[in-house]
Amino acid sequence: MRNSIKSVRAAGLGLSSMLGQLIWRDIRSRFIGSASGWIWLILTPLLLLAVYGFVFGVIFRARVPDGLDIPFVAWLAVALWPWLAFSEGVLRGSRAILEHSALISKVAIRRELLVVSSVTSAFLLHLAGYLVVLVALQLTGTPVHFAGLPTVALTLLTLYLFALGLGLGLAAVQVFLRDLEQALPTLFMFWFFLTPILYAPEMLPERFSGWLDLNPMTWWMTQVRGPLLWGELLPGMALLALGAAGLLALYLGWRLFRRLSPYFEDFL
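^ thats the sequence. predicted structure below, dont judge the formating
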C-alpha cells in the first residue's frame, strides 16, 4: 500500500515537473532573439493600452456607462487583458498538438500537457501585463480598487478553466479538421466585438441587449470590472456560476481530448 502511494506521488511530481518545464520553455521561446528581452513584458501592455485608448477613446470617442466617473481607457483596460489572455490561451492551446507533432512521435509524453502549458503560459504573460496596466492606471490618477484583486483572481481562475477546456477540445478536433486553424482567429475576432469590452451593454439597442446575456464572456467581463472599478469586494453567486461553467468546459474538453488522442498519430 505504501509503495503504491509513493509511486502515485512520484508520478504526480513527475507530471508537475514536466508541465513546469513545458511552461517555462514556452515562455522563454517568446523572448528568445529579442534584443531587449524581458523588457517587452512591461513595454508591450503599456504601448497596447496607449494605442487602444487613442483609437477608441480619442478617434471614435467611445464612452463609459452613464454615472461612472472614470476615463474610457480604464473601462477598456480592465476587461481587455482578461480577454487577451483568454483568446490567446485558447488559440495557442488549439495549435499545441499540431505544433509539437514531431515531439509527440519521438517522446512518450502526456499529450494534454502540451495544451495545458500553452494555455497557462499565455495566461501568465498576459496577467503580468495586466498588473503593469493596473499600476499604470493608478499612477496616472485613475482610482483602481486593488482590494478587489482577490475576487478578480478567482474570476480569472474560472476563466482559465474555461479556456483550458476549450483549448483541449479544439486541439483534439483540429488534428482532424486542419481548416479550423484558419477559421478560429476570425471567429474569435467576431466574439471579441460581440463582447462588451469596447462598449457598455447599455449602449446597445434594447432589441439586441438580451443577446449579450447568451455570451458567456459578458458575465466574465462584468465580474472583472465590478471589483476593480466599483469596489465590489465580495464574490457573489455569479462567480459560483462561472466556476461551474469553467469546470464543465474543462471536463467536456478533457473527455473529448482523451477520446480522440489515441488516433492523433494516424493524422499527424
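The radius of gyration is 20 Å.
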